[in-house]
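Following up on my earlier thread - several people asked me to post the actual chain instead of describing it. Fair enough. Here it is, all 153 residues.
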Amino acid sequence: MQCVIKTPIGPIEITQEESAITGIHYKEGALPIPPETELLKEAAKQFEEYFAETRKEFDLPLAISGSPFFAAILKELPKLVPYGKTASYGEVAEMMGSPGASRAVGSAMKKNPFVIVVPCHRVTKAGGVLGCYSAGGEGNKRLLLKHEGAIQG
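Reply from S.P.:
Thanks for posting it. Predicted structure:
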């Protein structure tokens, strides 16, 4: 099952299998599809609250898979780099207990199947350079970080 919701950064597709969210992806040009299940309705509500600045953390069951390191990053990133903060790929690698694994962190961020909920937009290059963002590019990354108060202007 799926829905597509309108957000300030563009359409977001949310997919569900059984009782878990299996993907949250930026879908440029997609037309809205209303949520039909209780879980998809809850996910859409949480996104609405996030963009209305009344929610800072998401509470959704995510179907996380992949290597142990990849799964650990997806699970831990919201706690390691909370709303309003940023960290570099290297800093995240250190926080994960794997100094020197900044490239692996970058690869995980690029493959993140749960945009915004797993906040890969909060992870930057060294020195605070924003870098790429798989959900609509650097402009969307900048908008999300401004929205969260992590960067100015």
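The CA atoms of residues 10 and 28 lie 6 Å apart. That should answer part of your original question.
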